[in-house]
Amino acid sequence: MDVLEFILQVVLGITSLLLTLLILLHKGRGGGLSDMFGGGMSQAVGSSGLAERNLNYLTIILALVWFLAIVGLGLITKFQVI
C-alpha cells in the first residue's frame, strides 16, 4: 500500500466521522434528528447567528476535504500499476 493512499484513507475516515457530527449539530428547520439531540431546545432559547455561520463554514471546508480525499483515492485506484 502506498503511503499517500494510506494517508488519504485515514483522512477520509476522520473527515467522515467529523462531517457526520457537524451535520447533526446544525440547527434543524423543524423536526428531524437535530431535535433528538437538543436542537429544539436551542431554537427556543435562540442561537447565535455567528456560531451557525461558523458551523456552516467549517462543515463546507470539511466536506471539500472529504470530497478531495475520495477523488484522490479514486485516481490512485484507477492509475495504480499492479
Explain this structure:
This protein has 82 residues and is mainly alpha-helical. It has one domain (3-79). It is 79% helix and 0% strand. The protein is built from 4 helices and no strands. It has helices at residues 3-25, 33-36, 39-45, 49-79. Helix 1 runs antiparallel to helix 4 (49-79). The protein is elongated, with a radius of gyration of 17 Å. The termini are close together. The model has no long low-confidence stretch (mean pLDDT 83).
Q: What portion of residues is helical?
A: over 70%
Strand content: under 5%
Mean pLDDT: 83
- As residue ranges, the low-confidence spans are none
Q: What's the Cα radius of gyration?
A: 17 Å
Structurally, how many domains make up the residues?
A: 1
Structural class: mainly alpha
Organism: Microbacterium oryzae
InterPro entries: SecG
Protein name: Protein-export membrane protein SecG
Function: Involved in protein export. Participates in an early event of protein translocation.
